[in-house]
Known about the structure:
Blueprint: E1 2-7, E2 10-13, E3 18-26, E4 33-39, E5 46-52, E6 58-60, E7 68-73, E8 78-83, E9 92-99, E10 108-109, E11 113-118
Parallel strand pairs: 2-11
Antiparallel strand pairs: 1-3, 3-8, 4-5, 4-9, 5-6, 7-8, 9-10, 9-11
Amino acid sequence: QVQLVESGGGVVQAGGSLRLSCAASGRTLSIYNMGWFRQAPGKEREFVSAISWSGDRTSYSDSVKGRFTISRDNAKNTVYLQMNSLKPEDTAIYYCAARNTPLGTFNYWGQGTQVTVSS
């Protein structure tokens, strides 16, 4: 099993920045990819970004590309999401996720951290 704990959420004004962290524990050697998803009120959960365990491959949704940066520190078993130029539409609960395979369903999830961007 893998446990994921997010931190770093909060309230920020539009144009501001936040950095989310996701600490993984347990069977971390089994992790292939880690990613971030978000869910806004009344909307479905959507993909934000993902990174391979080696860190050499990253992907982003079009809505955050150029503003968000995903990175990882394997020594700390931690993945980060640096969010710049935040917009009110970025307001959501952000979830960290991990999977054991390069493709397919993310099978481990954190509890989520709230990000609120005020206009």
